[in-house]
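Help! Submission page says 'invalid entity' but I think these are all valid:
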Amino acid sequence: METLFKIAWRGLWRNKRRTLITTTSVFLAVFLALFMRSIQIGSYELMIDSAVTEAGHLQVHDSGFWESKSINDSFIYSESLKNKIEGAENVKTVIPKLETFALGSYGEMTKGFMLQGIIPELEDLRKNISDKLVEGRFLNTNDDGIVLAEGLAKFFKIGVNDTIVLIGQGYQGISAVGIFPVVGIIKYPIPKLNNFITYMSLSKVQEVFAPYHPGLVSTIVIDLKSDKNLKTEAKEINSLLGSKYEVIPWTIMLAEVVQQIEGDNVGGLIMLAILYLIVTFGIFGTILMMTMERRKEFAVMVAVGMHRGKLAIVVCIETLMIGLMGVVSGILASLPLLQYLYRNPIPLKGEAAKMMLEFNIEPIMPFSLELFIFSNQGVTILILAFITALYPIIYVNRFKILKAMRS
Amino acid sequence: MGVIKISNLYKIYDESKIPVKAVNGIDLTICQGEFTAIVGPSGSGKTTFLNMVGGLDKPTKGEIKIDNIDIGDLPPRKLIDYRLNNIGFVFQAYNLIPVLTALENVAFIMQLQRKGKKERNKIARELLETVGIGDKLDRRPGDLSGGQQQRVSVARALASKPKFILADEPTANLDSKSTNELLDLMLKMNKELDTTFIFSTHDQRVMDKARRIITIDDGKVTSDVRKNGSK
Ligand SMILES: Nc1ncnc2c1ncn2[C@@H]1O[C@H](COP(=O)(O)OP(=O)(O)OP(=O)(O)O)[C@@H](O)[C@H]1O
Ligand SMILES: [Mg+2]
C-alpha cells in the first residue's frame, strides 16, 4: 500500500502544472460553492428563525380562526388544556396569547394595528422583545400599560407616559374601549412590524376584550424540542386536543417563506451542479491523460507481476488526492472568511433588502457555518472524483499488455 | 527444476488478409542454468516467441510447460502471480518505474511478493551492489544512464528469485562498453545463482558470449548450437 501510494503521489507531481491547475479548479469550485451555500443556508436559517420566533413551531387555535382571524373564534385556555399539549413528548414550551385588531387614537391621529395580549415574561423569553426597547420599559405580568412599536409611536407622535385610547371589537360583539399609558417603545427592523405591532399583558387584554370570559385566548404558541416532523407533531397534538381545535405548523402559516426557500434552494443547487460538472470534466481530463501517458508503465507493472487491482488503487488514490487537496484547501481558505462574515453579516440595500423586508426578514446577508454545508461539498467532490476514476479503473482492468507496451 | 519444454508452438496473426505465421511450429527444451541466445533476422519471430514463453501472449497452438505446468492453462490472475514468482523480465527499453528510485524499483517486485520491508530493502541493496549500482540507490531511472538503468532492470529481474530471465534485445539500446558490462553481469549471475537466461539479440558480440544459440527464421528453429563446456 505504501508503495502504491508513493507511485500515485509521485505520479501526480510528474506534471506539476497540470495537477496544480486541476487542484486549483477544484479549490475554486469548493470555495465558491461554500461561499454560495453559506449565504443561502444562512439566509434560510434567518428566515426560518424569524418565522419561528414570530409564529412558534405550531399554533393551536379554535378551529376556523386561521381562516377568520376573528376574536370570536377564540377559546378558553386552562391548565388541563396545557397539560394535554405538554403530554406530547416533543413539546418544549406552551404559551397562550390573545391577538386581535384594535384602533388607537392619540391627539389628532387614529390608526389600526395588531394588539397582542401576552404573558410578558414568557413572550420576552421567546422573542427577546425587551432587547428591542428604545424607550421606557417592557411589560410586567399584570401590567396596565401598552408597548408600541416605534413606527406607530412616531405616527401618533406619542411618547412614554402618554396615554393612548384603544377602541376595538371584543369577544362576541361587545365593544372594547380603554385608555392605556405607554410604558415602552420597541423598534423592529422590519417596517411592516414596526408600523403594526403593540403589546399588552394578556390579563389586561382579556379584561378589556372579553370581560365575561376569563381565560379567553386566540392562540397557543408551541415551541418544540426538535422541528424535524412538524406535520406529524401537529397531527399528534391535534388528536390529543380534539377537532374543536386546529393545530397549524409555521410552514403552513408562513407558507410563502417555505416556498421562497425552496425556490431559491433549487436555483442554488442547479448552480452547484453546473459548477461541479465543469470541475468533474477537469478532473476527468487530467486523470485520463495521466492514465494514457502511463499505458506503457502500467503494462510493464502487470508484466512483471502486479495485479491490475493494485493499478486501479493507484489511479483511485490519484483521483481522490486531487479531489481531497482541492476540498481541503477550499475549506481551509473559506473557513476564516465565512467565520468572519458569520460574525459580521453584510447589511443589504436596495432591491434585495426590499425583498427580504417583504418576507419580514431583517435585510442582512447572513452566513451559515453549519457542518453539513462543508461535509456536503466535500463528499460531493470526492464522489464525483471517484466517478471520474471509473474509466481509468476499467481501462487498467482491461488493457492488453503487449499492445500497451508497444504504445 | 526450471525446465522449459516448448512443443508444437504456433502464433498466427490473422488480423490482416494474409495470416502472419510469426511462430510456426517450434519445439524446444531449455534446461535450468542455460545461457541461451535467440537470434534471427528482423521479423523472424523472436519477440513473439519470448512473449509467449513469458506468459505475456497466448499461443495460437501448442504448449509451454515450465516444470510440467502448462502456463497456457493458467487463468489471468494466476498467470500474473506465475510471472511474478517464476519469470524475470529485462526489456530493451529498460522499462523501470520512473517515479521509483533504483532501490524502490528492485524492492517493488519483492513487495508484490509480500516480503517484509527490511528484508526486501536488504536484498535490493545487495542486488544493486552486485550489478554495480550500489552508490546510486536513491536515483530515479531518469537520472541514470542507459547502461545503469539496464543493470537496475537485471537486478529487478533477479529480485523475485525467478526460475529464468527473459530478455528481448537487452543490449540493443546500449553502447559497446555497456553491452559488454551487461553481458558479463548476466554471465556472472548465471554462474553464481544458476539462473537461466534466455535473450534475443542481433549483436554478434552478445552471441559470442552465449552458451547456446538458437536461430529462428520465419517462425521456425533453423539451428540450435550448444557451445563446448555448456550443459
Ligand atoms: N501484433 C501483431 N500483429 C500482427 N503481426 C505481428 C504482430 N506482432 C508481430 N507481428 C509479425 O510477426 C512477425 C514476427 O515479429 P516479431 O516481432 O516476433 O519479430 P522479431 O524477430 O522480434 O523481429 P525484430 O528482430 O525486428 O525484433 C513479423 O512479421 C511481425 O510483422
Ligand atoms: Mg523483436
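Support: the input was valid. A stray whitespace character was the problem, and the output above is from the cleaned input. Chain A has two domains: 2-52+257-406, 58-226.
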